[in-house]
Amino acid sequence: GAVVSQHPSWVICKSGTSVKIECRSLDFQATTMFWYRQFPKQSLMLMATSNEGSKATYEQGVEKDKFLINHASLTLSTLTVTSAHPEDSSFYICSVGQGANQPQHFGDGTRLSIL
Amino acid sequence: RKEVEQDPGPFNVPEGATVAFNCTYSNSASQSFFWYRQDCRKEPKLLMSVYSSGNEDGRFTAQLNRASQYISLLIRDSKLSDSATYLCVVNPSGGYNKLIFGAGTRLAVHP
């Protein structure tokens, strides 16, 4: 499956800071990437679908002005959590799908802690 | 009703045991199905896709019953390293559309 690299692995920062997370598809040109969030003891929840060269598609309840997604190339999507607050602390994971009805392959995830 | 439902467990089993996990999904038009495993504080990793005819990969067997909207995973000869959370995952509409994750079933294999 696709090899997906996510950076950084851990972020600890003060409330009000903006944090950028990068997701790279290392061996596959991905027109579509996905961003998920997982709170402790809960399932992964899709936040948005990142589309290369166009606007991301956000899931209901996800604030697009707070979670900025940029997918400027076929190998890189970024998620920026703007003015992060403690309630944004979570495990953020990106994934790449390699085709219709194919499984997605996940990056290592980013653990975000806002103090 | 949740789109994908799993028994949360935990399932505590001894090494060598056979254990089965069940999953139901609500959208009868769902196109593709997967089992992932997730270790504590790690990303999900694909365990296997689930095909209509059923499929096996070593000690793991997956079954799909479209009529009942039911998916299962059987693990034979459990190993300590099988301890993890197993996620039932459904693509409700095919294509590149989103995956729906179950909440996961936790398995703990003990010596």
Features:
heterodimer, A: 115 residues, mainly beta, 7-stranded mixed sheet, 4-stranded antiparallel sheet, 11 strands, globular, B: 111 residues, 5-stranded antiparallel sheet, 53% strand
List how many beta strands of chain B DSSP finds.
11
Estimate what percentage of residues of chain B fall within beta strands. Answer: over 45%
Question: Which series of helices and strands of chain A comes N to C?
Answer: EEEEEEEEEEE
Q: What would the average pLDDT of chain A be, to the nearest integer?
A: 92
The greatest interface here is:
A-B, 25 and 23 residues
The assembly state of the depicted protein chains is heterodimer
Question: Which bin fits the share of residues in helices of chain A?
Answer: under 10%
How many helices of chain A? The count is 0
Q: Low-confidence stretches of chain A at least 5 residues in length (pLDDT < 50)? A: none
* Total of DSSP H or I helical runs spanning 4+ residues of chain B: 0
- Largest sheet geometry of chain B: 6 strands, mixed
Low-pLDDT windows of residues of chain B? none
Topology as H/E string of chain B? EEEEEEEEEEE
Basic shape of chain A: globular
Tell me the span between the first and last alpha carbons of chain B: 37 Å
Biggest sheet layout of chain A: 7 strands, mixed
Query: Can you give the mean pLDDT of chain B?
Result: 92
What distance separates the N and C termini of chain A?
36 Å
Describe the structure.
The complex is a heterodimer of chains A (115) and B (111). Chain A is mainly beta and 115 residues long. Chain A has strands at residues 4-7, 10-13, 19-25, 32-38, 45-51, 57-58, 67-73, 76-81, 90-97, 104-106, 110-114. In chain A, the strands form two sheets. In chain A, strands 2, 4, 5, 6, 9, 10 and 11 form a seven-stranded mixed sheet that branches. In chain A, strands 1-3-8-7 form a four-stranded antiparallel sheet, with no helix packed on it. In chain A, a hairpin with a 6-residue loop joins strand 4 (32-38) and strand 5 (45-51). Chain A is globular, with a radius of gyration of 13 Å. The termini of chain A are far apart. The mean pLDDT of chain A is 92. With 111 residues, chain B is mainly β. Chain B contains no helices and eleven strands. In chain B, the strands form two sheets. In chain B, strands 2, 4, 5, 9, 10 and 11 form a six-stranded mixed sheet that branches. In chain B, strands 1-3-8-7-6 form a five-stranded antiparallel sheet, with no helix packed on it. Chain B is globular and about 40 Å long. The model of chain B has no long low-confidence stretch (mean pLDDT 92). The interface between A and B is medium-sized, with 25 and 23 residues.
